[in-house]
Amino acid sequence: MFKPLPVAIGLRYLRAKRRNGFISFISLASILGIAIGVTALITTLAVMSGFQREIRDRMLQMTQHATVSAHGEPMANWRQAVDAGNADPRVAAAAPYISTEALLSGKRREPAMLRGVRPDDEAKVSILGERMVEGGLETLTPRSYNIVLGRELALWLGVRLGDSVVATTDFQATPMGAVPQLKRFTVSGIFEAGYQDFDRGLAVVNIEDLQRLLRMGDGVTGVRLQMHDMDQAYAVARDLALKLEGPYMVSDWTMENAHLFRALKLEKTMIAILLSLIIAIGAFNLVSSQVMLVTDKQSDIAILRTLGLTPRGVMQVFMVQGTLIGVLGTVMGVIGGVLLTLNLEHILRLIEKLTGAELMPADVYYITGLPTDLSPRDITIVAIVALVMAFLATIYPARRAARTAPAEALRYE
C-alpha cells in the first residue's frame, strides 16, 4: 500500500547511522522490548497450554468421554445401550457403571465418590488398572466386597491393603424409619492417577456389590462411552440416547468439567493480557524513538517536502521505518519464544543442577517438570498483537512529521 519512494527512504533511515546515538539506543531498546515481550508471552502460553493438556489427559484417562444415564432412576436396559455403543464405529468402548456419594470410615472419615464397575470392562474405558500401586482390579470379584481406593484417600482414611472400610450411602426407608445403608468393604487395591480429584475422592467396587448395597436390582446409573475422537463425545452420546426407548440424560467431558476448563481458560487469558504489557512497553519506547527521530530529521523532511513529497508520503516514510522495527522485534521474539519453549525442560534441569534444589519435587506436585504445548494459533495471535501495537505506535510520530512546515524547518539551516 506504500509508494516505492517512501518505502525506500524508510528503509534507508532504518539502515543509516544516526547522528544522535541516543536515538539509536532507544530504537534498539524498542526492538528488544518487543522481542522480550513476545518471547515471554509465547513461552508462558505454551507452558499453560502444556499444563492444561496434562490435566485434561490425566483426567480423561480415568473418566469417560461421555455418559448416557436414565433420568432420576436406575437404567434397566443398559445391556442394549452397551451393545449399541460398541456397534458404533465412533465408540472405542462402552461399559456400565454405578456412581453414588458415600462416607467412608476407616481410622478417620472421608467423603468420596463410590463407583461400581465391571473389572473386565474398566480396562476398556480407563487406565485405572495401569495406575494400581498395590493390589489390582481383578480382586473386585462379585460378592467379595473388596474396594480399591485412591492413594490420598487411603492415607486420609488411615487404611492399608487388607484393612476394612465402612461405606455409608443414602438413607433407606424401613418400617423403623430412615436407616443409613452401611457396608463393610476390604481394601484390596490402591491406585495413583496423578489427579487429585481421583486420588483423594474416588473409591471403586464391583458393580454387583454396589447394586446389592443400593438395592438397585439389575439397574445401573448409566453407560460410560470412550471415543476414538473425544471432540465428538456429545454428538455420539446423543445419537445413542435417541436409539433407546425412554428419556435419557446425555453428558460429555466438557460439560462435567466445565468449571475447571473455564477457570483454566480465564487464567490463561488474564496472564496473556498482563504479559502483553511488556510488548506495550516496547511499543511506547518505539513512540519515543520515532518522535526523537522526527525531531532529528526536520531538515530532511523539509527538503523532501520541497522536492515534492506530499505530507502523506512523509507520514508513510516514518510509518515504514517504525513498522519495520516492530517486525524485527516480533520476528526475534517469535524465534526466541519457540527456542526457549523447546529447551525449557533442559533449562529447568540446569537450574536444578546449579542450585542443588528440586524445583518441582514429585512428592509435592502431581505434575513434575514443565509440560509445554506450542500452539501455532497462540504464536500467530501473539505476533499479530505485537505487530498491531508497533504499527499503532508509529501513527503519532508519523503524523507529527507530516505536519512539519518546510520553511520553518529550514530557517536555521
From TrEMBL:
Keywords: Cell membrane, Lipoprotein, Membrane, Transmembrane, Transmembrane helix, Transport
PANTHER family: LIPOPROTEIN-RELEASING SYSTEM TRANSMEMBRANE PROTEIN LOLE (PTHR30489)
Protein name per Swiss-Prot or TrEMBL: Lipoprotein-releasing ABC transporter permease subunit
Domain of life: Bacteria
Residue span(s) of domain ABC3 transporter permease C-terminal: 273-406
Membrane-spanning residues: 21-48, 270-293, 314-340, 379-398
Organism from which the protein derives: Luteimonas padinae
Membrane topology: Multi-pass membrane protein
Matching InterPro entries: ABC3_permease_C (IPR003838), Lipoprotein-release_system (IPR051447), LolCE_TM (IPR011925), MacB_PCD (IPR025857)
Primary location: membrane
Family recorded in the similarity comment: Belongs to the ABC-4 integral membrane protein family. LolC/E subfamily.
Occurrences of domain MacB-like periplasmic core (ranges): 27-240
One Pfam family cited in the UniProt record for this chain: MacB_PCD
